[in-house]
Amino acid sequence: MQITADQVKQLREMTGAGMMECKKALADTAGDVEKAIDLLRKSGIAKAEKRSERGASEGLVESYIHPGNRVGVLIEVNCETDFVARTAEFGALVRDLAMQVAAAGPDYVRREDVPAERVARERAIFAAQLEGQNKPANILDKIVDGKVDKFFSEVCLLEQTYIKDDKKTIGDLVKEAGSKTGENIVVRRFSRFRLGQD
């Protein structure tokens, strides 16, 4: 099948991938744009995971005050170069992340940041809720594991559902940005302030 320049251009605009990568993805998927997007995303995420080993010491600190001045956020997001840090796309990503923190109120950046004693306490509560149900222990363990995963998706920023697109998580959003920029992007830390709360 002949791949046209317009198809390559369209795919490039949709994904931010390079022209040759777009052309190859279209050739590999017989011109199917949706399949080509999926193929590029899969390869982009794989590349982003390789990049995660590289240092990220540039970036931005962004503040966001929610309308009404009752909730405010400070967030630090790092990348590898100041060139990327100064782009409008990176600035928009950091602002979206700050808005996510304001709206969804996570407590931690990633699940590894959650103290082990808090995870153990939540696990014990979930197990106690299931006591008295006549189910095998291995089934109960799977139910508790599922509840713990749901807990992480509520309190960890990278595991939360993105407020602007419920089909992706914040972790997916950060990986996509890393794929487009070709750099390791790291959400370093954030603080959320709510009027009248410690």
Key attributes of the depicted protein:
alpha+beta; two-stranded antiparallel ribbon; Tetrahydropterin Synthase, Chain A; Helicase, Ruva Protein, domain 3; three-stranded antiparallel beta sheet; 3 domains
Q: Short description, anyone?
A:
The chain has 198 residues and is an alpha+beta fold. The protein is built from eight helices and five strands.
Describe this structure in words.
The protein is built from 8 helices and 5 strands. The protein is α+β, with helices and mostly antiparallel strands. It folds into 3 domains: 5-51, Ubiquitin-associated (UBA) domain (Helicase, Ruva Protein, domain 3), CATH 1.10.8; 58-110 and 156-194, Tetrahydropterin Synthase, Chain A; 115-154, no CATH class. It has a 3-stranded antiparallel β-sheet with strand order 1-2-5. A hairpin with a 2-residue loop joins strand 3 and strand 4 (165-169). The longest helix has 19 residues, at 33-51.
What is the count of DSSP helices, taking H or I runs of 4+ residues?
8
| Helical coverage, percent range | 40-55%
- Series of secondary-structure elements, N-terminal to C-terminal: HHHEEHHHHEEHE
Mean pLDDT across all residues, rounded? Answer: 86
Enumerate the strands of the largest sheet in spatial order, edge to edge or round the barrel: 1-2-5
- Overall 3D form: flat
CATH superfamily of the largest domain: Elongation factor Ts, dimerisation domain
Whole-number tally of structural domains? 3
* Largest β-sheet summary: 3 strands, antiparallel
State the name of the first-level CATH class of the largest domain. Answer: Alpha Beta
Radius of gyration: 20 Å
Low-confidence stretches: none
Separation, N- and C-terminal Cα atoms: 62 Å
Beta-strand content: 15-25%
CATH topology of the largest domain: Tetrahydropterin Synthase, Chain A
Structural class from helices and strands? alpha+beta
